[in-house]
Amino acid sequence: MGHSDGDHESDLSADDSPWSEGSWSDDDEEGSLSFEDSGEGSDAESDEPDAAAAEESDSSEDEVAPRNTVGDVPLEWYKDEEHIGYDITGSKIKKRDREGRIEAYLRNADDAKSWRKIYDEYNDEEVQITKEEAKIISRLLKGKTPHTNVDPYPDYVDWFEYDGKGHPLSSAPEPKRRFVPSKWEQKKVVKLVRAIRKGWIKFDKPKEEPNFYLLWGDETDTADNKRQGLSYIPAPKPNLPGHEESYNPSVEYIPTQEEIDSYQLMYEEDRPKFIPRKFDCLRSVPAYEKALREGFDRCLDLYLCPRTRKKRINIDPETLKPKLPSKKDLRPYPRTCYLEFKGHNGQVKSLSVESTGQWVASGSSDGTIRVWEVETGRCIKVWNVGGVVHRVSWNPSPDRHILAAVVDHDLLLLNAEIGDEDIQMKTKGLLQIDESAPEEDTGDKKPAVKWVKHENFDGIMLIHHKAVSTVEWHFKGDYFTTVVPSGDSRAVLLHQLSKKHSHHPFRKLPGLPIAAVFHPSQKMFFVATKKFVQVYDLQKAQLVKKLESGVREISSISIHPGGDNVIVGSKDGKLCWFDTDLSTRPYKTLKNHSKDITNVTFHRKYPLFASSSEDCTAYVFHGMVYSDLNQNPLIVPLEILRGHSSSDGRGVLDCKFHPRQPWLFTAGADSVIRLYCD
Amino acid sequence: MPKHYRPAGKKKEGNAAKYITRSKAVKYLQISLATFRKICILKGVFPRDPKKKVEGNHKTYYHMKDIAFLVHDPLIEKFREIKVHRKKVKKAFAKKNKDLADRLLNRPPTYKLDRLILERYPTFVDALRDLDDCLTMVHLFAALPAVEGERVQVQRIHNCRRLSHEWQAYISRTHSLRKTFISVKGIYYQAEVQGQKVTWLTPHALQQVLTDDVDFNVMLTFLEFYETLLGFINFKLYHSINVNYPPVLDPRLEALASELYALCRYMSSGRVPGNSESAGLIEDKEDENNKESSKTDESEIRLAQLQHQLPTNEPGALMHLVQESTATDAEDADAKECKSLFRNLKFYLSREVPRESLLFIIPAFGGTVSWEGEGAPFDETDEDITHQIVDRPTQSHVFLSREYVQPQWIYDCVNARIILPTEGYFVGRVPPPHLSPFVDNDAEGYIPEYAETIKRLQAAAQNQVLPLPSIGDEDMENSLVEAIIDRSESNEVADKKRKLEMLEKQYHDELKMECEGMTFSNRTTDNPPDVMDKNDGKQAEKDAADISKALMSRKQRGLLQAIEIHQERKRDKVSLLKKRKKNADSSASAKGR
User: How distant is the Cα of A275 from the closest Cα of chain B, in angstroms?
Assistant: First the structure.
């Protein structure tokens, strides 16, 4: 039985190999049939050692119906019984008699085939197995295949095409859909067919059409030939090459080695992009390595650079300059240097012309005040005041020859000691000071000004509480004003000569005061601070106007003899002309000097004004003010006066007009006073 | 409140509404920046400079109308299609759907630029006006290495070569080349086509190197437009001289890389016979020269071309005749001069000279030319050769009947429009400096020495050759000379005047001083620095000029200063050149000694 089982298995394995399900099912049926057949089989058949038959036939013939029919029950149950079970008819099968051991041994020893005999406990019989079966058993015990002619490792023959399947073989039965035409494929085909019919899918390559044709045909149709849309701004053409780009430029276009080295010191954007080179012959010219780069840059310029139409001004620079009226019509005005007054040893800080125009006084940093005769250029008088003279000013009254001078910190009033006896006496009288004048004790506060008699000279010292910068006379000659820039609320002081009295009318000023001037004819007063000019009415004691200069720092101020026009010089070289009737802003701002303006001044009679500056020049202007209010003042620059030389970085420090003649005095830092005449 | 506050519900106005920044424009068009770039290049849309930059100074602004103009362009849709197509192909490949991929690749979406060109250049003259960049670019790409696998397709480089040769052939054929200049960057040419001056640069005929610092996408987009433009222009130009376009070339010559010559031959042979004598002349000459060698070939080519052309040319022959006659009438003196510059000269090019350039220039000025190599019309032993162009240190075998000159001679002759003496250009010598014909020496304020020499030679040639025929020209010349003389004279007169004035002034001053009773001793103090006086005089002049500056407004003063600075720089440049020249001369003379 055991062996037949093994056979069956081996057969199965051989049979299974075709894997087709149809054959598999057939096999099954056969198997079932064979079982039925096996019922007829007998024991004897099992004994037939017909290996070949067993191999070729199915298991049906090997099957031997067992004699015992107890089934698969433990045989122990029949241990104590007489029988071992029942046969097919139901009669008991008796146990055989047990042989003795010795008998058995002897029988075995006699029987050569005894080693092939096996005791079948179930049927209680001895079975002799054939030689072939024994061989099979021994092979099985060794773990080999039962039959020798079976190759356990045959070369594998693949029965299927696995390419493109992508899946392992499956034993699932073929579904129906594999045998039915696909609906979706059909749909797809229909779609494709339709697409092909309608020409959506084309198989032939597109035809080559002629690329070029006569694009610009008839040029006469003008309406069609207009470019649409915004105005086209053509890109500027690249610069045409100059001589220096030649492969063989003339020698002067090739920079020297030093020049090429100096390019390295330049900023990258200033550095020349192209350095000319000379090649002796055309064949030695190499390929230009930046060709692609330059082409690319041009492309970038073309599509990235914002374009605008710029008006290129191609004008003669001369036409930019304003037309001036002929200078000849505006004469007389100072043009050439006529006289030089030499004598000072230091910078001439200030000068002043006497009201008759006969004398001119000057103060210098060498500590002297000099009075010169204008016509001859002779020095009449020298006072050694022992301090830097910042400012001198003649009393404008013709019968008082008094000089006011700012020496160091304080003001000195001097008797000029010129003119006839009468006037000299009068002046002397004016300059007398009562020593026993009541010392007004103003408490703990130091008085702003103290009037003291000067020891050496016949004059009066006005001792201020802080340094004085300028002094200016009222046109009548009795009042004068001094400015103490750091004086806070006592910065601008008014003094009366006849009463020897001083007071400070302005409590508050917008900024540091620079200069203060009296109106030439009315009771008005101008105070120039750093940026503004304040105009006060002295009678009403109130602010009338505030002129905004718009310059950085005012340095000087002058009032037109008419009183309605003011000029202001500034430290950034600008000169502002104010027409106070017109506006509080400058009517005209002239930028004529490159350095600070030191002084500006109007002529008393002629329509002239002048400015002097640290850049060693003085400008003379024609400044005509019309009585007609509708007509704006006419300003014409007339002459640049040069001649002073610079010293210590300073140029012309002061300029004053002669009261009657069109002459200009200038005081220079080179210790010279010059007189310019027509 | 922000600077540009706009109340709600109020529309944008002014510059804020008129201009749009680039990033906003890209967003508005719903395209990528790269596509935006491409479409801007093709459509010729450029940023503009608004008066008020509402969104900031560092941004690029486009005019809203320009952008609106782009919105409706079919090109944008085409670009989208191309993008989609690319995706489809990629997807087909990814799904291994080879069929579909092949089918898609077979029919990629394409677009044409012809309407766009007409839109940008409504008239032909407009196109010619903007041709400079186009030609330079096409010639540059024609010089790039045509190597597979580089960033530029080989086919495009070949296309550029073809286009450039076609253009050159036309220029050469119609004798419209005017100026040439060999620079370090390449060779500049200037031609006059329909009254427009077209200047372009061709790189030296050496292999260019593709560098990494340029964006080839941008350049190739430009090139795409330029190729189309030049194609249409060439068509129009060829059409105007009754030659078929695109030309059919002799494959043998093409293979020998002498397309230009092939083109020239095509043009001269492809014309309807009897149109122009000069064309026939050249051809006849050529034919005589290489009767034996290439007669059979030529007849074949001609046959092919005639077949190609007959249907188009035959019916309009009469019309063309008329056109031709009017065209010759319209040709100005300039063209005539150019045509006959090298009329009776025959050139032979050695191996080492830039062949393409000379093959272009010499026929353009009426000369006949051959070269060393296969397919040449005549060879070196030809007896009629008058000039041989050589660029080598020594010439071993010398024909006595001809002159051996360096290539620069041709270029200088062309620029001077006369046949220059050849002494300076002999083999082995350093030729005289090569000067740019694009510089107006008078305006520049400095005339190089050799320019003056050429001018003298020109004047001499004119006197000899043209005593009568061009009276108008001479008049012009005379008036010019007169003008120059006038200018110099006026300068002199002004100088004299100034001197007189000075003297007068001095006299007046002295007189005045006398009147005012100035003593001589006082006067002397003023006088001694006589040298100073001169300076003063100058200073006074300057003052007189400058004095009105005080009255100028700030803006005008700034402008004036800018002009003055410019003039100053120009003067400096000239003075530097003069200084260098002086140094060079002195050192040369020192060496000579």
Answer: 10
The 8 Å CB, 24+ separation contacts for B501-506 are: B502/B537
Q: DSSP labels for B233-282?
A: HHHHHHHHTT--SSPP--HHHHHTT-HHHHHHHHHHHSSPTTS-HHHHHH
Please indicate, yes or no, whether residues A342 and A445 belong to a single structural domain of this protein.
yes
A121 and A140 share a domain? no
CB A549 within 8 A of CB A533: yes
CB contact under 8 A, B123 and A225: yes
Cis peptide leading into residue B251 (ω within 30°): no
CATH number of the domain enclosing A441: 2.130.10.10
Which of residues 80 through 109 in chain B touch A, CB cutoff 8 A?
Answer: 103, 106-107
pTM, full prediction: 0.67
Report the Cα B279 to chain-centroid distance in Å. Answer: 26
Residues of B in contact with A330 (CB under 8 A): none
Do A413 and A342 fall into the same domain? yes
Please indicate, yes or no, whether residues A117 and A53 belong to a single structural domain of this protein.
no
Q: Do A247 and B434 touch (CB under 8 A)?
A: yes
Q: What is the mean pLDDT of residues B343-350?
A: 89
Sign of CA dihedral A664, A665, A666, A670: positive
Number of domains in chain A: 3
Of B211, B522, B559, the CB nearest to A320: B559
Which of B41, B204, B438 lies nearest to residue A285, judging by beta carbons? B204
pLDDT in tens, A489-511: 888 999 998 888 888 888 888 88
Tens of pLDDT, residue by residue over B29-56, are 999 999 999 999 999 999 999 988 988 8
Which of A113, A128, A143 is the C-terminal boundary of a domain?
A: A128
My answer on whether A340 and A433 are in the same domain is yes
Nearest by CB to residue B41, choosing from A250, A303, A305, is A303
Q: What domain range includes position A365?
A: 335-506+591-677
Q: Does A23 reside within a domain?
A: yes
Of A359, A499, A470, which is closest to residue A417 (Cα–Cα)? A359
A637 found inside a domain = yes
Tell me which fold the domain B339-465 belongs to. Rossmann fold (3.40.50)
> Based on the domain organization, do A104 and A147 belong to the same domain?
no
| ipTM score over 0.90, yes or no | no
Provide the shortest C-alpha distance from residue B310 to chain A (in Å). Answer: 18
Q: pLDDT tens across A201-242, in order?
A: 888 777 777 788 888 876 666 666 677 778 888 999 999 999
A9-31 residue pLDDT tens: 334 344 444 343 433 333 334 33
Residues of A within 8 A of B133 (CB-CB) are 235, 238, 298, 302
Give the Cα-Cα-Cα angle B84, B86, B91 (nearest 5 degrees): 95
- Phi/psi for B13 (5° steps) reads -135, 165
Whether A462 and A421 share a structural domain: yes
Rounded to a whole number of angstroms, the distance from the CA of A258 to the nearest CA of chain B is 12
Note whether residue A86 is domain-resident.
yes
Residue of A nearest to B36 (CA): A303
Strands B387-389 and B403-405, by their bridges, are: parallel
Kindly determine whether residue B203 and residue A288, on different chains, have CB atoms separated by under 8 Å: yes
Distance CA B409, CA A185 (A): 78
User: Which amino acid is it at A616?
Assistant: C
Cβ atoms of A361 and A371 within 8 Å: the answer is yes
A426 and A493 in a single domain? The answer is yes
How far does the CA of residue B272 sit from the closest CA of chain A (Å)? Answer: 20
What are the structural domain ranges in chain B?
A: 14-72, 116-309, 339-465, 476-500, 553-593
Which residues pair with residue A350 across a beta bridge? Answer: A363
pLDDT, position B216: 92
Query: Residue B66 and residue A230: Cβ atoms within 8 Å?
Result: yes
**Interface contact B498, partner A, CB < 8 A:** no
